Amino acid sequence: MQRIEPLGGDEFAPLTTYLNSASSGLIPARAAAALRAAVEESVSYGSMGRDYFGPADASRAAFARLVRVAPERVAIGGAVAVHAALIAGSLPDGAEVLVPEGEFSSLVNPFAARHGIKLRTAPLARLADAVRPGTALVAFSAVQALDGRIADLEGVRAAAGAHGARTLLDVTQAAGWLPLRAGDFDYVVCGAFKWLLCPRGASFLVCGDDGPEALHAGWVAGADPAESNYGPIKELAPGARRYDEPHANYSYVGAAQSLALLNEIGVETVHAHNTALADRYRAGVRALGHTPLPAPGSAIVSVPGLADAADRLEAARVRVSVRAGSLRAAFHLYNSSDDVDRLLEVAGEGR
Predict the structure, then answer these.
(1) What does pTM read for this prediction?
(2) Which of 70, 74, 155, 346 is most buried, by CB atoms within 10 Å?
């Protein structure tokens, strides 16, 4: 079988066989260097550094390029749940929100906790069919964290449009490896510490000019943040920046570097690389007598009945996850065919 080399050159040199990007991505060398420099700068200039907004704006622009929208449509923050809560707070009482069964909690809980919202679930495979005239919002992930299933993005978008419902797409498990057009959806949220290789504490919200009516904003939401420190903000920033949170500077110092790297390599290139590795693993898992999930096309592979290999893999410094009794492996740009073969070798030792 043809050897698959890692992408990214000298940016990655893990001391483990790291196949757990669905939990947390590796930090590139350039991002790590920028973080060290920012911490050192803080010794003399404080934790906001000498240029608090520069790395955040660079990250905004780089993320926008990855998901093919204008930077003016991107707000920055610290967690997907906060962005989702902003949208939940903007919905009227009685609004129906449709989510897939087993959807990740950070996307679901803000709507479940909002008084007056009617939360309804449906199987992911039938989500488009479950949209009805009374549905106000469909909130779902492009790729399921639990097992790597890819949603029918076009089908759900079309069904929502036919019934006058808005769409909220979570791309936390997709952005960086799955080609996406964020502009096809009303709202897009993304936690950047997984496939986007950013430090934890960086997240993004994409919305249009008719964004949420409710406002979750601090002083950075002003048109001129230097003039919006005290009292009510007199003039909000144009575009999605009005939904910015005061950000964690270190997170965005690293994010600017990580996102730049992904743009240099290209999402299509990463997609081809990741899915080739996942397909190699699927073939090997079948040879071991197991049935991998989901169907080919995802960079995440879940294998029921192989969770008992987790302890052996951990002892061998092969990093994966166990979710709902299945062994979950996630293949990203820094992985190679050697990593897949090592995973299969250790996992198969118990046969």
Answers:
(1) 0.96
(2) 74
